[in-house]
Write a structure and sequence with these properties.
The chain is of the alpha+beta class and 282 residues long. It folds into 2 domains: 81 residues, 434 Repressor (Amino-terminal Domain) (Orthogonal Bundle); 145 residues, no CATH class. It contains 10 helices and 9 strands. The strands form 2 sheets. The chain has a 5-stranded mixed β-sheet. A 4-stranded antiparallel β-sheet has the order 5-2-7-8, with no helix packed on it. It is rod-shaped and about 160 Å long. The termini are far apart.
């Protein structure tokens, strides 16, 4: 079967129309007309222009261009498919975006903080012996009040002693390394009074002592120290380590004040003396 271009050329020659005459009539260049007759569609402008040239060619010869346009479509289909066949695009390497240094440092910091928070209990258990010191358990305080049979004046005096001693507690730690002043030692050459309190220190211990409402001692006592004080009516003593001292009243030992580290507040009068003495003393 002859190609479309061959049939067009035969039809033109049969009508005795030269290629030059057709070019003048259609205003299409001779080169394009010859390319159409030779089926050299690649030398034509392409697309709709090729169909326009074919249509003008048929109109010049007075034939219906419909059949020839359909034949043209069939002939160019393989070429068209080859031209429009998608080609694989060149593979472009994927480059990951560069991370900003600030973002990296921020992520690292958040991870470190989370790790520290998760292990806080473990860290505390390791370093707590080096960073903490035992403190007195202020919640376990023993107070021996004025006995019910005491006079009204004695009860008021005990309240005054309590208020004064409460202020002394705040000064105990501040005076840890300060030597005692003569007023604080409170030891007189002539101890006069109905009550004589002896303090024997066996372990480091904070002590605040009032005698008849007057402060006679506020400081940290060291093991081996011994002091004696006198009072006419009463003593009021705050002891920061219940097991750190041994107390005697008029030469008679008092009963145990409590376990080590316990804070004790103690009022001593003639009325409650029998309650404070150790059992062995009767």
């Amino acid at each position: 079967m002859a190609s479309l271009g061959t049939d067009l050329r035969r039809m033109r020659e049969k009508q005795n129309v030269s290629i030059t005459q057709m070019a003048q009539h259609t205003r299409i260049s001779v080169r394009h007309l010859q390319s159409l007759e030779e089926a050299a569609y690649g030398r034509l402008p392409g697309g709709m222009y090729n169909r326009a040239i074919l249509r003008a060619y048929c109109d010049c010869l007075g034939v219906d261009p419909g059949d020839y346009l359909r034949r043209y479509e069939r002939e160019i289909t393989p070429i068209h498919d080859e031209q429009v066949k998608p080609r694989h695009a060149p593979r472009v390497p994927i480059i990951a975006p560069k991370s900003h240094p600030i973002a990296i440092w921020t992520c690292g910091l958040l991870i470190a903080v989370a790790a520290l928070y998760a292990s806080k209990d473990w860290i505390a258990s390791i370093f707590s012996p080096y960073l903490t010191r035992p403190v007195p358990e202020l919640a376990t305080i023993t107070v021996i009040p004025t006995p019910p049979g005491a006079s009204r004046g004695q009860a008021a005096a005990s309240a005054d002693d309590l208020q004064a001693a409460e202020g002394d507690i705040a000064l105990l730690q501040a005076r840890a390394s300060v030597p005692a002043s003569p007023a604080e030692t409170g030891e007189s050459n002539s101890l006069q009074g109905a009550l004589r309190l002896s303090v024997e220190v066996v372990d480091d211990c904070w002590i605040s002592l009032h005698s008849d409402g007057s402060q006679v001692l506020v400081r940290l006592l060291k093991p081996g120290e011994g002091h004696t004080y006198a009072a006419t009516e009463r003593f009021y003593v705050v002891i920061g380590n219940a097991a750190g001292v041994q107390l005697k009243i008029n030469g008679m030992p008092l009963k145990s004040l409590g376990e080590p580290g316990r804070v004790v507040r103690l009022a001593i009068t003639e009325q409650n003396l029998h309650e404070l003495l150790a059992k062995s003393t009767g």
